[in-house]
Design brief:
This protein has one domain. The chain is about 40% helix and about 5% strand. The protein is built from three helices and two strands. The two termini are about 30 Å apart.
Amino acid sequence: TELTAVISGRPARGIVNKLFTEVGADGHPPLPDYPTTYDAAKALHAAASGKGSQDYSVNWGGTNFAQARAMPAGELVATLAVEMDEAA
């Protein structure tokens, strides 16, 4: 993950993709203020998504994103309950 202000004008942590690396790159022209940047990012994502690309999607994630577990929500809740009991 990386911090960017490209979407909202304020620093937020997200999963790095082309939106982060191209639009937020050093030397990129100054970005307009929010909400213009947010609306433009939504339009860019919609256009790319319409062509089957997720390169410009916004995927927020914290510093521990790599520790996320792929499982159904119910299974995750049950797993967390067991882990909490074990840690007590």
